[in-house]
Amino acid sequence: MVKKMKIGKFYKINREKLEEAIKAILDKLHSEFPEIVEKWAEEQLKLKKAIKEEEHIAEELLKKPTTFEQLKEEFERKVQELRKKCKHQKLSKWMDFWWAPGHPTGYQVKICKICGMIVKRRTRCQQCGKWVEEPFEFKDEFGRIFCSEECLQKFKESFKW
Ligand SMILES: [Zn+2]
Ligand SMILES: [Zn+2]
User: Fold this and answer.
1) What are the extents of the domains in the chain?
2) What is the pLDDT of residue 103?
3) How far is the CA of 141 from the centre of ligand 2 (A)?
4) Is the pTM of the predicted complex or chain greater than 0.70?
């Protein structure tokens, strides 16, 4: 602590002298080796620029969204973040899933009450009407879903002549 104060004091007192000395050295160096001094000056400038850019990025990050588009982006980004972290422990009841108002998809879903993600899906077996939950193991070539191989075969046979 004592040492630190001493250095600080020393620096304060001698700052002007120090700056003068550095300037003199640089002037002398510049007259003899201009490339070295110019290169050094250029690097200093680059460094300053880089710091400014970083400060600018930090400022941008801290900025609050203002327009509708920015709000939407912010919202979507936060939802993504939440969904990545969420363990989906609180699920809704089974609900009909609509692709548009008045247009049910034939699927029911369970949604995470915390992050809003669809966590489970189910639909009815095309043959027996039993609920089948995702992942759907028994499908025909048209994507129709069945509860079992048995139902799938029965369904196929019912179309045979
Ligand atoms: Zn969740
Ligand atoms: Zn079935």
Assistant:
1) 2-80, 88-157
2) 87
3) 16
4) no
